[in-house]
């Protein structure tokens, strides 16, 4: 049995990439990774279980139609029967295309390893994190798109051969006009620690204390929907049922009431800390640790305590 | 501009999520269905705005049974011109996408729009699958969409940022926040929706790739530990030693 893993261009050290290699390795068979662009650093994937990394160096940028062709041709040349993606923005476009191209069933948003005792089933998040479903795949080739932060990467000390692989994917139909990448910030869906705030912060000028706590922790920042709607914070920070769904190890929510639509995007978090001045705020019911208090007072205190802890450890 | 907007029904965001028949079926008891917010707020409204500025026709399509009439009429009341319902249970994304693609193949659309994902199955799959069936480019999670002649300019979220892209029609786009603002249907729209054409067509027979076997609710949370707001050191200590997250 062979498993093929798609890795985003130049993402050899990204945690999400190491997660999918570890996941593939745990399926049991040989693991081959496929990517495009530069091959520098591709051998790092070997430590996590890939025995081979196929790199299409003829491509530097690729659209999802081209990536689909690249992955399909790698499936053909390796004879892989399972294909794994990290469920990110690229995979959300490529995996469905590949499903149609290969006539292979797709499990989108998997959160665990598949069960193969009786058929092939896998657990996924549904109803915006309010439930799980077990989905079976009937086709010979299976595609799994794994939600980030579902498995811990494991360095098993292996090594990988890096091979160039030209899939002849043709020209792109999509012309990239410009790209904006904020420097240094942690992409929200991949973040292990998240500090989030809501309307209780009263105005965008008060976000300094949210950012200070995030910086002290090494966390990403998020917000509730109304805060993004009024323009206090950028749209990509909006978490919830109609925003980004996240599953960090720690979610700290300050001045957020905990409406059901907000919870839908964060209820997969391992630990939730709620800071709210209203002891009746519904969010406390979903929290592991609660602080009834004024965020303007609690946030700076928590930042200080984190800094003290970081200095001591 | 001939636009096809794919809409899905989803349970109202405040619905209680429960399952029946040995946890194999979503319990629809007391559940109010809505048009999936991404489909309605972004895909449909942007399609209508384009029609209002450059002219054209907006068709909505859904795969579902007769019970979906209410959400179809709602989308027509917001302003779509006509509707198509493919008469079948939407068992998985591949089934839905394949049915819609079969219809789209027979009718020349310049734009096929979907929402970013449904709020019940969260798969984000249908748009990409339709695009592959039609062998068209697909721009996913677009937050802006403008059309000049046959060139579509889109802003889309990418890993760690945003990019602006250009692509020629026909193209498939999945629509996310930023593209348009929610519209509330008015009385005239609701009246007009009653007589707008709704075509019901039989599904193509296709092989099933996946099946939702069972559902499960998450374990109940244990009671929240309350911390003295004056003592954030104790919270840090618990996060480190008890929760082990820092
Ligand atoms: C279809 C639909 C989809 C939706 N999708 C989403 C979604 O994806 N994400 C989302 O977040 N919302 C969503 N909502 C909105 C949601 O219902 C809530 O309105 C929203 O989450 C509330 O945001 P908030 O908690 O920031 O504000 P509020 O509800 O105004 O709560 C502010 C909280 O701050 C507290 N507070 C005030 N001052 C202080 C202080 N000084 N210190 C500490 N605490 C303070 C208050 O006690 C209150 O609990 C959706 C709604 C609908 C209808």
Can you tag this structure with a few keywords?
heterodimer; A: 313 residues; alpha/beta; Rossmann fold; 7-stranded parallel beta sheet; 5-stranded parallel beta sheet; 7 helices; 15 strands; 26% strand; B: 246 residues; 9-stranded mixed beta sheet; two-stranded antiparallel ribbon; binds flavin-adenine dinucleotide
Q: Number of folding domains of chain A?
A: 2
CATH level 4 superfamily of chain B: HUPs
Shape of chain A: elongated
CATH class value of chain B: Alpha Beta
Number of DSSP strand runs of chain B: 15
Q: Biggest protein-protein interface?
A: A-B, 95 and 76 residues
> How large, in whole angstroms, is the Cα Rg of chain B?
21 Å
Question: In words, what does this structure look like?
Answer:
The complex is a heterodimer of chains A (313) and B (246). Chain A is of the alpha/beta class and 313 residues long. Chain A folds into two domains: 2-164, HUPs (Rossmann fold), CATH 3.40.50; 188-312, TPP-binding domain (Rossmann fold). Chain A has helices at residues 15-26, 64-78, 89-102, 208-217, 225-229, 260-266, 295-312, and strands spanning 2-6, 30-36, 52-56, 82-86, 105-110, 121-126, 131-137, 142-146, 161-164, 174-180, 193-197, 220-223, 250-254, 271-276, 289-292. In chain A, helix 6 links the parallel strand 13 and strand 14. The longest helix of chain A has 18 residues, at 295-312. The termini of chain A are far apart. With 246 residues, chain B is an alpha/beta fold. Chain B has one domain (2-217): HUPs (Rossmann fold), CATH 3.40.50. Chain B is 28% helix and 33% strand. Chain B is built from six helices and 15 strands. Chain B has helices at 37-54, 69-78, 93-106, 126-134, 187-193, 232-241; strands spanning 2-6, 9-11, 19-20, 25-26, 33-35, 57-64, 82-87, 111-115, 138-148, 151-158, 161-168, 171-175, 198-201, 210-216, 225-227. In chain B, strand 6 (57-64), helix 2 and strand 7 (82-87) form a beta-alpha-beta unit. In chain B, helix 2 crosses helix 5 and helix 3 (93-106) crosses helix 4. Classes of the chains: A alpha/beta (313), B alpha/beta (246). The complex binds flavin-adenine dinucleotide.
């Amino acid at each position: 049995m062979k498993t093929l893993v798609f890795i985003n261009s130049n993402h050899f050290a990204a945690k999400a990439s190491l997660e999918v290699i570890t996941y593939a390795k745990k399926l049991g068979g040989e693991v081959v990774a496929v990517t495009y662009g530069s091959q520098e650093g591709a051998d790092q994937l070997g430590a996590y279980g890939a025995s081979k990394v196929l790199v299409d160096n003829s491509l530097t940028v690729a659209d999802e139609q081209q990536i689909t062709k690249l992955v399909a041709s790698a499936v053909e040349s390796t004879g892989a029967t399972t294909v794994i993606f990290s469920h990110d923005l690229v995979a959300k476009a490529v995996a469905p295309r590949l499903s149609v191209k290969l006539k292979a069933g797709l499990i989108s948003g998997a959160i665990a390893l598949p069960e193969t005792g009786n058929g092939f089933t896998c657990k996924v998040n549904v109803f915006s994190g309010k439930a799980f479903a077990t989905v079976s795949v009937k086709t010979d080739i299976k595609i799994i798109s794994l939600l980030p932060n579902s498995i811990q990467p494991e360095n098993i000390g292996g090594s990988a051969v890096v091979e160039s692989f030209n899939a002849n994917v043709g020209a792109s139909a999509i012309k990239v006009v410009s790209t904006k990448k904020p420097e240094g910030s942690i992409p929200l869906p991949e973040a292990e620690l998240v500090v989030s705030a809501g309307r209780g912060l009263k105005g965008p000028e008060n976000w300094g204390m949210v950012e200070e706590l995030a910086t002290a922790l090494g966390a990403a920042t998020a917000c509730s929907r109304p805060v993004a709607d009024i323009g206090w914070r950028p749209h990509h920070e909006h978490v919830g049922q109609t925003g980004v769904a996240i599953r960090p190890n720690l979610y700290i929510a300050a001045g957020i009431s905990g409406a059901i639509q907000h919870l839908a995007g964060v209820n997969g978090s391992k630990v939730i800390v709620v800071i709210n001045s209203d002891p009746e705020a519904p969010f406390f019911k979903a929290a592991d640790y609660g602080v009834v208090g004024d965020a303007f007072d609690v946030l700076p205190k928590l930042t200080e305590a984190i800094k003290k802890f970081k200095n001591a450890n | 501009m001939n636009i096809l907007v794919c809409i899905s029904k989803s349970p109202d965001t405040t619905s209680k999520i429960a399952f029946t028949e040995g946890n194999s079926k979503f319990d629809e008891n007391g559940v109010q269905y809505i048009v999936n917010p991404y489909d309605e707020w972004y895909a449909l409204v942007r399609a209508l705005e384009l029609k209002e500025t450059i002219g054209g026709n907006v068709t909505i399509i859904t795969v579902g049974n007769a019970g979906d009439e209410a959400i179809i009429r709602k989308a027509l009341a917001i302003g779509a011109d006509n509707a198509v319902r493919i008469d079948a249970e939407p068992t998985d994304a591949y089934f839905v996408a394949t049915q819609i693609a079969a219809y789209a193949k027979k009718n020349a659309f310049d734009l096929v729009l979907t929402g970013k994902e449904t709020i019940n199955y969260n798969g984000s799959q249908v748009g990409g699958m339709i695009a592959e069936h039609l062998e068209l480019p697909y721009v996913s999670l677009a937050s802006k969409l403008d059309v000049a002649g046959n060139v579509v300019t889109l802003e889309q979220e990418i890993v760690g940022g945003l990019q602006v892209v250009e692509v020629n029609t026909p193209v498939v786009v999945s629509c996310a926040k930023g593209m348009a603002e929610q519209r509330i249907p008015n009385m005239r729209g609701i009246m007009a929706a009653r007589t707008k054409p709704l075509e019901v067509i039989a599904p193509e027979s296709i092989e099933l790739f996946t099946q939702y076997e069972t559902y499960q609710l998450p374990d109940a949370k244990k009671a929240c530990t309350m911390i003295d707001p004056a003592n954030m050191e104790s919270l840090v200590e618990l996060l480190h030693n008890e929760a082990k997250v820092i």
